[in-house]
Amino acid sequence: MTDTRLDALEEKLSHLQRVTDELSDVVAGQAREIERLQRRVGLLMEREAEREADGEGSIALADQKPPHW
To answer: Can you tell me the distance from the alpha carbon of 16 to that of 10, in angstroms, rounded to the nearest whole number?
Structure first.
């Protein structure tokens, strides 16, 4: 293999390593964001369940017909 081809392969490898590192960082950030959003959705679901339980006798929000019906 000539030095030129070897240099080109090393350059491509270096580029691929950098891109892989960047993508890894993006995926890690997305995983953190998903975990944060899952916690928030869980809290909202708990809050809504408590609100529905406190309003005994009223129709649960999920079972109400939309106002345009």
So the answer is: 10
- Burial track 42-63 (b if 16+ CB lie within 10 A, e otherwise): eeeeeeeeeeeeeeeeeeeeee
Q: What is the pLDDT along the chain (69 residues), one digit of tens a residue?
A: 689 999 999 999 999 999 999 999 999 999 999 999 999 999 999 999 898 888 765 656 666 777 776
2 backbone dihedrals φ, ψ, rounded to 5°: -80, 160
Q: How far is CA 45 from CA 41, 42, 51, 54, 59, in A?
A: 6, 5, 10, 14, 17
Report CA-CA distances (Å) from 65 to 44, 56, 59, 68: 21, 18, 10, 8
